[in-house]
């Protein structure tokens, strides 16, 4: 366990909060889906880079368009991050598609189908 792990965890949580708020409320790019969620943020220990995991309810095309829109809004998001969080270095943002929510919804649907078939066989 790293010495700065608690600090890095707090920074990750704060960056996630600020980015989710800004993406949801202030970014006006039409490519960004209205059903966009920031699922996780991973800031590097040197605070120079940050991976932002984005989940979009919809298809792969919507995810691709949302990632392009977020890439173009990276400057705005970095400046908003610098204003909200007092860090020596504002990290460079990298947006990554995250399929975990869609995967969970799909698995839940499959489980419900199996349970319905099991009850109808009784």
Short description:
Helices cover 55% and strands 18% of the residues. It is an alpha+beta fold and 122 residues long.
Structural features:
alpha+beta, GMP Synthetase, Chain A, domain 3, 4 helices, 3 strands, 55% helix, elongated
> In CATH, what is the homologous superfamily?
K homology (KH) domain
CATH topology: GMP Synthetase, Chain A, domain 3
Structure summary, number of beta strands: 3
- For the termini, the CA-CA separation is 51 Å
Q: Output the number of helix runs.
A: 4
Task: Please provide a written account of the structure.
The protein has 122 residues and is an alpha+beta fold. It has one domain: 2-Layer Sandwich (GMP Synthetase, Chain A, domain 3). 55% of the residues lie in helices and 18% in strands. It has 4 helices and 3 strands. The protein has a 3-stranded mixed β-sheet with strand order 1-2-3, with helices on both faces. The longest helix is centred in the last third of the chain and has 22 residues. The model has no long low-confidence stretch (mean pLDDT 89).
């Amino acid at each position: 366990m790293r010495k700065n792990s608690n600090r890095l965890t707090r920074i990750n949580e704060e960056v996630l909060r600020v980015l989710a708020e800004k993406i949801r409320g202030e970014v006006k790019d039409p490519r960004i889906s209205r059903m966009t969620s920031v699922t996780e943020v991973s800031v590097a220990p040197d605070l120079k880079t940050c991976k932002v995991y984005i989940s979009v309810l919809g298809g792969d095309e919507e995810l691709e368009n949302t990632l392009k829109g977020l890439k173009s809004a990276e400057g705005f998001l970095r400046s908003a991050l610098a204003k909200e969080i007092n860090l020596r270095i504002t990290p460079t943002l990298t947006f990554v598609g995250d399929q975990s929510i869609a995967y969970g919804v799909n698995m839940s649907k499959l489980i419900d189908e199996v349970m319905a078939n099991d009850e109808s066989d009784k």
